[in-house]
Amino acid sequence: MGNLYGLIGCPVEHSMSPAIHNDAFKEKNIDGYYHAFHVEPERLKESVEALKLLGVKGFNVTIPHKVSIIPYLDELHETAKIAGAVNTVVNVNGRLIGHNTDGNGYVESLKEMINKSVSDHKILIIGAGGAARGIYLALTHQGCKEIDICNRTVTKAEELIHECPFPNNSKALTIQEAEDHIGGYDIMIQTTAVGLHPYTDQKPLSLRNANKSAIVSDIIYNPIHTALLKEAEELGLTVHTGVGMFVHQAALAFELWTKQAPSIEKMTKIVYDKLGGTSC
Ligand code: ATR
Fold it and tell me: Across residues 204-217, what is the average pLDDT?
């Protein structure tokens, strides 16, 4: 009998995780099946207990359960402790271990785009919520010191920098300050919800004064080409879409469960085919 894997979140109906994981099981000749489970917040505890009881080998965790699941797990891996959130759970002999592959998945996807080491770049993170936190801590953990954070609520950016346990020269900025100094950054990473479907014409700031050699990265992948990335393309800047982070976090989770690395190219193609976009 094959092993069961899955995703818990609310909503999960439009998730692309089942498609990419089930394809990877086939590609690797693994007898596994991945299913998306819709779990309402008030049923989280009993749902996690049920998955454990039924011997589900591993599952992903998405909005809104990434932080609230922590008390129901048996142990946290360092990645989840650092991020303060869990996106992947591994069932090890009946013990549920929480991991987080979001931050490292993002950094892996960024590394595909750049020639130099990621720590040689001056980076601006736009946003200071949960997603920004995972990326900021993964980058500083990997030795990037020159990262500033701008946010609509600047105190949240200050808090994030203050809580960072890794060496950094980070500054917290208002959106206006970031826009005024945007020419000084090599990589801009957009982590807010601004531009997400259905508000696809919105962007958090203007790239007008950005350096022509800069990379603009948006973690939103619905739509693939957000208003910010469209502006970047019009200005001739290099664009990094949210598909990269989505695929790499999934690949790292798949590896934790099966000890096998799936094809990043194949996962990427499935996502682009489903979203009807073109890669860039
Ligand atoms: P996530 O887990 O997706 O990061 P979150 O923790 O709720 O979600 O964080 C959302 C981020 O998007 C925050 O940086 C938020 O800014 P505030 O801290 O000022 O709330 C940002 N954000 C959401 N809507 C925004 C908007 N309309 N304009 C600018 N920033 C916005």
Answer: 97
pTM of the model: 0.94
117-131 exposure pattern, b = at least 16 Cβ within 10 A, e = fewer: ebeebbbbbbbbebb
3-100+244-275: in CATH 3.40.50.10860 = yes
Distance 210 CA to ligand 1 centre (A): 22
Mutate to test the pocket of ligand 1, among 65, 68, 152 (most ligand atoms within 8 A of CB): 152
pLDDT at 280 (0 to 100): 44
Q: How many residues can be counted in the chain?
A: 280
Chosen CATH of 103-241 out of 3.50.50.60, 3.40.190.170, 2.70.98.10, 3.40.50.720? 3.40.50.720
Q: What's the chain's Rg over C-alpha atoms?
A: 19
Question: What does DSSP assign to residue 74?
Answer: S
